[in-house]
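Saturday, quiet lab. Running sequence design on the structure tokens for the scaffold JK sent over.
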């Protein structure tokens, strides 16, 4: 059986979904999936639209059915679905009813193993219940914390004989891993629908599937703790705050950096008082290369940082400094290209009295910061990401970036942002 490329249309607008599906099919997508968000926002009418638009392609309704399997499979099949998904954690009768009704109306059933505690055991059970396909599925939220489907896929493929689909952040590299693990149906969402060139992205993935040769790409790549710095350096601070649901921004901390300059690193925190620069300078000795000094100076107006401290940081390999207080010598600091972010810029400095501490939890720009938290700064300002959420936020930020890249391409085609997002349609109803 030739491998099948299924494009997952996980978006809310029918018009955009159809436009992107056309581009994906042009690039070689075989099956067109109405994703769960799309079905929830547009209803069964999206299945009718997709079936009319793509009569030669199988239409997948990602219903994620959990109950009344027969009835929901029926309404999806009547609307044009060729394949309907039922969640593996649904009761067995939900599957038997769904399978029976599907056969009556000419639709096949795919059992979705997302979040199943024992995928292999449940896959074997679903095969006995008569499903046509089984899907090993690592959901988007699980992908954000670094999970991937390949290991589970290999185990499931060796346990069942029905065709196995796989979903979970796949791209032109990982699709080959999935095929080698035994998958027949490769489900791709973001790496296609968020691409600048949707047709090219689909064609690249399909080519990789047919040739079994990985095509290196950065699109929809997932990051772990090992390369998280690389991830944060790819995104902007606005991308990160969007990914954090508008949280994390240091308020009133302004950048003093060259055009395009960006920093990302773990924080080494310092607490001092207005004008006392002893602890900030001592912290340079303790800082590791790549770390960022984050200093709580109480928002004061006497400089606790200047040119000489910046030179010292450069020698040590410190990535930058963020100050809830004042800095001076900014002209020279920008000239030597050392990133400084501060609340104030003043000419007058204080004295080294030695008050404060290094490594304690502080507040900077209204945000709690601990030593080890991630700090990212650019021309927009500074964002802090809690260390325990860094992998997730890095991956979610990349998702935001990819989505914006796709919107940008649609705007370049002559559309406005309002029309791309269909703002009037999706305004909150009071």
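Result came back. Writing it out in full:
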């Amino acid at each position: 059986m030739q491998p099948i490329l299924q494009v997952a249309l996980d978006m809310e607008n029918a018009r955009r979904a159809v436009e992107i599906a056309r581009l994906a099919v042009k690039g070689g997508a075989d099956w067109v999936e109405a994703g769960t968000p799309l079905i929830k926002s547009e209803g069964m009418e999206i299945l009718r639209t997709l079936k009319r638009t793509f009569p030669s392609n199988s239409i997948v309704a990602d219903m994620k059915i959990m109950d009344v399997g027969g009835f929901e499979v029926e309404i999806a099949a009547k609307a044009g679905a060729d394949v309907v998904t039922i969640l593996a954690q649904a009761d067995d009768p939900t599957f038997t009813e769904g399978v029976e009704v599907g056969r009556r109306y000419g639709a096949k059933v795919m059992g979705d193993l997302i979040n199943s505690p024992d995928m292999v055991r449940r896959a074997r059970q679903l095969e006995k219940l008569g499903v046509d396909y089984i899907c090993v599925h690592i959901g988007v939220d699980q992908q954000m914390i670094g999970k991937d489907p390949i290991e589970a896929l290999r185990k499931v493929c060796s346990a069942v004989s029905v065709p196995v689909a796989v979903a979970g952040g796949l791209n032109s590299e990982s699709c080959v891993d999935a095929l080698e693990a035994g998958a027949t149906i490769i489900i791709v969402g973001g790496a296609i629908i968020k691409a600048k060139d949707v047709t090219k992205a689909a064609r690249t993935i399909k080519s990789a599937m047919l040739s079994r040769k990985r095509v290196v790409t950065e699109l929809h790549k997932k990051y772990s703790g090992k390369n998280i710095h690389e991830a944060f350096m790819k995104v902007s601070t606005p991308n990160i705050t969007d990914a954090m649901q508008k949280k994390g921004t240091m308020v009133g901390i302004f950048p003093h950096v060259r055009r395009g300059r960006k920093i990302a690193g773990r924080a080494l925190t310092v607490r001092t008082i207005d004008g006392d620069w002893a602890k900030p300078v001592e912290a340079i000795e303790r800082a590791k290369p790549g770390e960022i000094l984050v200093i709580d100076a109480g928002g004061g107006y006497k400089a606790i940082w200047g040119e000489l401290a910046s030179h010292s940081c450069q020698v040590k390999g410190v990535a930058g400094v963020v100050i809830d207080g004042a800095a001076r010598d900014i002209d020279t600091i920008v000239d030597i290209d050392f990133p400084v972010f501060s609340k104030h810029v003043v000419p007058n400095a204080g004295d080294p009295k030695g008050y404060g501490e290094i490594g304690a939890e502080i507040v900077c720009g209204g945000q709690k910061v601990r030593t080890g938290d991630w700090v990212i700064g650019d021309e927009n300002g500074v964002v802090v990401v809690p260390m325990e959420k860094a992998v997730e936020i890095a991956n979610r930020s990349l998702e935001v970036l990819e989505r914006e890249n796709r919107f940008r391409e649609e705007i370049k085609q002559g559309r406005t942002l309002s029309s791309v997002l269909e703002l009037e349609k999706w305004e909150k109803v009071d």
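Notes for JK: The CA atoms of residues 323 and 342 lie 5 Å apart. The chain has 18 helices and 18 strands. Ask whether to fix the surface positions before the next round.
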